[in-house]
């Protein structure tokens, strides 16, 4: 209901504006405030990191545009590339292609789409990160070496720990931090993408073994992005998005190589992906990011949780701060679950062949095994 109402509000406002028809101001205010309660907006304006009605409409536009862009890219670009990468010339010349090969083409398209999206978000994210780091005083001047400055910030240079440096980055100036347009554009694009991905996962994409976990992940991620925006926690959210998108780029790249039968490249990329997962999602995310959002935020608020207020009326900050961090901890649990699957994939692809003195196999996504077995069984029944 929440997502349906959000889409309705954004689309109706956008369409009415396009047609030159202004909705009654009272109705527009009701629609916006019913989704974004005034007690957690922190007096959002164009001069801080809060979500304004304009930002909210932009999210709705991205929700509507994402499946359209994906459909156009699939038809014009990704499907031809997938057929050329996955199928042999003789297979492409056939009128009917085996279901197993058709499934590989479909999966290649899905991974190519996600790789394109995550790479775009990573580029947008680093541009926003550099701007926000300068605003937080962690990159002092434009003449300062960018590489050295970022290295100093990530490693906690100057005697500071990475956690303390991260806390300075996302808490300094809260709640009236000035956000660059690059940050808000990234947030609107990411939120629109994940809300649209919920629907695409339900009706479009191939269902895998972790369908329920992936659906939960998309819902939690959408709520986290929305929640951090309304709480003016955009700098923390920016770091979280960058951590996750970096691993996703390597994962989708490895899957593309595997579908294209490039086993050596797939194994190399999978090794890098596994290393990035350990460093970024199992170590940096819980012990630097979540620890800071959980404890350092309370120290900044300088009051016991039951006395915290955002704006009157009511002690709402403690509740929303708790919800935000519970969702982050839920992501940590999902990361551990997915890491067990990653370890199983590595064991089957690398360890088992080494023990049997044979060439390592290509990494196979074990989430797809059930459907592959069903396809094989169906093919055998048709032959019988």
Rg over CA atoms: 23 Å
Helices and strands, in order, run as HHHHHHHHHHHHH
Terminal Cα span: 48 Å
Give the number of DSSP strands.
0
Major sheet: size, sense and barrel closure?
none
Query: What would the average pLDDT be, to the nearest integer?
Result: 75
Helix content: over 70%
Number of helices in the DSSP assignment: 13
How would you explain this protein's 3D organization?
There is one protein chain. With 384 residues, the protein is mainly α. The protein has helices at 2-18, 25-35, 53-86, 89-93, 99-135, 146-155, 162-171, 181-203, 211-230, 234-259, 263-301, 316-355, 369-383. Helix 5 runs antiparallel to helix 8, helix 5 (99-135) packs antiparallel against helix 10 and helix 11 (263-301) runs antiparallel to helix 12 (316-355). It is globular. The relative contact order is 0.10. The model is unreliable at 1-41, 141-150, 303-315 and 373-384 (pLDDT under 50).
What's this model, at a glance?
By secondary structure, the chain is mainly α. The chain contains 13 helices and no strands.
Short key terms for the protein model shown above:
384 residues, mainly alpha, 13 helices, disordered N terminus, disordered C terminus
Chart the SSEs and their pairings.
Blueprint: H1 2-18, H2 25-35, H3 53-86, H4 89-93, H5 99-135, H6 146-155, H7 162-171, H8 181-203, H9 211-230, H10 234-259, H11 263-301, H12 316-355, H13 369-383
